[in-house]
Structures are given as C-alpha cells and as structure tokens.
Amino acid sequence: MKNISKILSIIFLIISILLFCYIFYRSQILYSGTRADYYLKYYVIIFLFIIFSIISFFIPKRIKINITIVFASLLISLYFIEAYLNIKEKSIKFETYKKNTGKNFDKRTKFEVYKDLKKDDPDIVVTIYQGQFRNDNKSDYFLLSGLANRRTIYCNENGYYSIYKSDRYGFNNPDTEWDKEEIDYLLIGDSFAQGACVNEPDTISGNLKRLRTNKNGILSLGQGGSGPLTEYATLREYLPEKKVKRILWLYYENDLHNLRVELKNKFLIKYLNDSNFSQNLISRQEEIEEILLEELQKAILIQKNKSDRQFLTKVVKFVRLDLVRGLIFYKPTIASTKGFKNILKASNDFTKKNNSKLYFVYLPDYVRYIDRYEQGNLYNYRKVIQIVKDLNIPIIDMNEELFYKHKDPLSLFPFRQSAHYNEKGYQLVTETIVNKIKELEK
Questions:
Q1: Among 60-69, 317-326, 402-411, which range has the highest average pLDDT?
Q2: Beta 395-397 vs 243-252: how paired, if at all?
Q3: Residue burial 68-101, b: 16+ Cβ < 10 Å; e: rest
C-alpha cells in the first residue's frame, strides 16, 4: 500500500511536468507567444496540479487513494461527455443536411476532394491559407492572393465543398469583373469577404451582383486568414486604377488577433510606415504563380499527412477533450487594438485619395449569440466601434442592424454551430449592407 501511494505521487508529478511541457510548446513555440492570454488559464491549472503533486508525497495514503478514485471517476465522466458531444455534433450535421437536401453530407477531406477532382481537371488547386506568411520574416515577399485562373477548392461547413474559379490575380471573382469601367463595390477583408464555404452566387460579392441594378463591377479582395494590416496592404496593391465608388471593409470579430502577429512582420509593417511602399504584386503575377505552386505542393503534402493521420488526429482531439474544454473554458478574449486605428486611418486616407468612399462593416461571431456569453464587449467591440466613429467612417454594424434584431440569429450559421455564415446569413448580411448604404447616401 505504501509503495502504491508513492507511485501515485510520482505519476501525478510526471503527468504535471509533461502537461507543462506540452502547453509551453504550443504557447511559446507553436504560436510564438501570440496566444499567451488563451493559455494562461492552462498554466494556472497545471501550476496548481504541480503543487498538489508535490504535496501528495506527504498526504496520508488512504486520503491520496480516495482523491485518486474521485479524480479518475471525474476524468472518465468527462470522456463520456466528450464522446456524446462528438456523436451529437456530427449527427446533427449529417441528418439535417440529408433532410434539407436529400443528399449525403460530404465527409471527404479537402485532400480527398482534390485527388478526386484532379482526375478531370489537372489544374485544380486548394486555397492557400494567408496566415502562413505572417510568421515568416525570412522571405523577400509577402503574397496577398491565391493562384490565378484556376478552379479552387475552399472549405466545407454546409455539407458540400465550395469551389470557385479564381480571377487573374487569384481572388474569388469572375475575371470579367476586372474589365468593368466602374466598380460599385470593392470588398476588403478575410474569409468572410472571400466567401468562405459557400459558392460564388451565395457570397457577399455574389449577392451584391444579384442585387445590382447596373452593369458596374463588383470585386472582392478577400483572403482567408487576413487581418487589418494585411487587408490594408491588399488594398494598396490591388485597388484597380479605375473609378471605385465604394470600398466595404468587412471586419470580423477575431481580426485583432491576427493583427498582433501582422505588426511583427517586416514586410507588412512597411505598408504602415511608408505610404509609397509597394511590392508591385500586380506586375509580378508569373513570379507569384511560381511561389504559390511551391506552397501548394507543401499544402498538399500537409493535407495528405493529415489525411493519413486522420484517425490519429481524431484520437488526439478526443484525448485532449477538445469539445469539453470548449464548453468549460472557451471565452473570447478582449484583444488589443494597438495599431488598429492607424491602419484604419491610413486605409481611409488612401480610399479618399482614390476618390472612393470607405464603409466599415462589422461582422459578429457565433459566440455573441450563445446565452452564456455577455453581449457587451466581446472582442473589444465597444472600443473598435468607437475608433471607427472617431475617424468619421460610416459604420454598418451587423450586430445591431441584423443579428441582434433577428429572432433566431444562430439559424444564420451552418447547422447552428460555430462557423462562417450559411447561405441565408450571407444573403441577409448583403441585403442589410445595400439597404443601409441607401439610407446613408440619401
């Protein structure tokens, strides 16, 4: 009994040290310290666990064994809950999609879809995540778009993989839109501006085309993973040399988290510090294609490895209790607005210089409409809105104008789960934008 008691204390201490190493790796190495606020609670829990492990060497053996039994029972219960949540989450998606469409939910990975479609279209590609360039300070470039003139596989949140034909610069637009003499709307933003996980007619730019009453162009420069500084750089590089009437800055609530990393990138910071800086990306399309094709091969290899390790990945997520931790610990953080005002001011000045009008569109996150979260200042909401007001930029706040007024805001997200907006969500967002701009321009 005495040996068992000592062994339990040693096991507690070893587990504590291993957990500390794991959290340190993810926080300081994998994310380079940029998500320290997120991992703080885990550091606190592990620190307490280490203290308990040390104290356990001096606890009477019977009490220690009882504590171990209670701890083991709690852990087993949590794994039962994790299993239930996994089954429930998937069954809701699969059953709802089947009921609404009569089709089966596409369960393939992006790599499997790529392999299947490449048989008929050798030039088909997958999206290259914009965020992968933010942490790279060694390259002599920072690319802001995808591969051009190719069918591009994007993502699946609604039961099917969204696929679009990229334009001459690699953005999600019909290429003919660039030939229009006048542009009514130019969208700048992240994956929401790019039209994540719906097909082109259902994106914000696609809905704007449906609602337009003239033959003027509508363009999106959106790229998934972009933050405010990347978006400003994109505007600087790709704003067409023609009349652009309105620029819609589509701001999503987690954009400030991306900004923290962007401000450390040697290329992106040049756009903010030097109004004349440019990488001349429009004239370097062949070079960009070559670089992105190399990145594509890396992305495909990563996807292939993920596919090969799919079962192992699921096991790891289960062991980590991902869904349970999300229920217990997840709370959106109030990210710093450092640098945001300067970027937005620079964007507004650049817009005015090009005789355009900038509109700031605030896109709310799913968690804002879950009962357990306080509505007010998620993601530094109030401060962001105040910054925009101070700069006298017209605001279209989708939280106030649409989601808060909607009788069932969660219905605007795929299967009522955390994701981008569904087709109806994108449609109502676009209609709200158009109606609000008509009101503002009276």
A1: 402-411
A2: unpaired
A3: beeeeeeeeeeeeebeebeeeeeeebeeebeeee
Handedness of CA 46, 52, 55, 58 (dihedral sign): negative
Q: Contact 110/118 with Cβ under 8 angstroms?
A: no
User: Distance (Å, rounded) from C-alpha 238 to C-alpha 246?
Assistant: 15
Percent of the chain at pLDDT exceeding 70: 90
Measured CA to CA, the distance from residue 117 to residue 120 in angstroms comes to 6
Which pLDDT score is estimated for 111? Answer: 86
Angle (CA) 268 269 273, round 5°: 130
**Residue of 397, 387, 319 whose CA lies nearest to 363:** 397
User: CA dihedral in degrees (322, 409, 441, 213; nearest 10)?
Assistant: 100
When pLDDT is cut at 50, 70 and 90, the band that residue 141 belongs to is confident
CA dist 106 and 239 (Å) reads: 37
* Helix or strand run (H / E) with residue 440: helix 423-440
Torsion sign across C-alpha atoms 14, 17, 23, 28 = negative
